[in-house]
């Protein structure tokens, strides 16, 4: 998303851009006495609607960049379902079957208008509203969370798919059940919101609890850190059912001291000989067609732009344990994995997809069509 910041000079609303969304900090457990909602795996979006003569709709991303042109079908749905003058915080998602599909969502960010229109028909998006920042001529940023929630329920009482109100509850036991159930529909976890909290932009005043699991993975390479000759990230692999090592993600959260230590620690595994490099499982990573049949590092992407995706190949002989929260489509880590420990007791061949825990499936439509609470 390379566009400039969202501007809505043609609008006249009580809350105008830039609006930076309220954020959450991670915790291990859900705290009591809060409002609980599912954590959606999509694009955070703030929708501005001014019911003027041109009935404008603008959609801003979490970073303040415009999303409007990428979701033309959603613009029409928002016009049909939102109050004439409002600012709504929510999430853009794509539903495939009975779960969310984040990969399909990322494909929607494309510079070609013709492809945007085609994807709008093939993979139409939905909008899940979970906060109301302005209604009519009233700004609600200083209004407590519980009152904003009540106003949202009233304002979107007649909304219909693909515009939804996020289910919410004050019952901790219900939220804990959602935490287990909703993962099977592709959701990330649970968000907890203090009921008396005003909308505090760009502050981590909410709580998020996400799933965490561990996996044993093969270390097959690393990238240099942008600041200099220390390790930036470790490239991780898992063997598929054919025994082919597939790239599943990276782990990158190390202190600068540890990054420097890793350079020396991994030196014996580095492959400098061109002939040996050619035998590396990911040797074809620079060939665009190779990415069609295998998961390799450095896949070309509109997200990467001109970013240097080169990496240093290592002999795939060392195993490490990482923590992860979610597998995207069952083949890669959705977010950066966290290093836990080396596993000298494991062989690279034993690191297969079979070790990964599959969440129990749960129909996403049960979440989207559930009666909004609180």
UniProtKB/TrEMBL annotation:
Enzyme class per UniProt: ligase
Task: Domain (DNA ligase ATP-dependent C-terminal): give its ranges.
Answer: 229-346
- Can you state which reaction this protein catalyses? ATP + (deoxyribonucleotide)n-3'-hydroxyl + 5'-phospho-(deoxyribonucleotide)m = (deoxyribonucleotide)n+m + AMP + diphosphate
Instruction: State the Pfam families in the record.
Output: DNA_ligase_A_C, DNA_ligase_A_M
Which GO molecular function, any one, fits this protein according to its record? ligase activity
Q: Which part of the chain is the ATP-dependent DNA ligase family profile domain?
A: 21-210
Q: Which domain of life is it from?
A: Bacteria
Q: Which family does it belong to?
A: Belongs to the ATP-dependent DNA ligase family.
Which PANTHER family does the record associate with it? DNA LIGASE 1, DNA LIGASE 1/3 FAMILY MEMBER
Q: What is this protein called?
A: DNA ligase (ATP)
**Lineage from the top down?**
Bacteria, Bacillati, Actinomycetota, Actinomycetes, Kitasatosporales
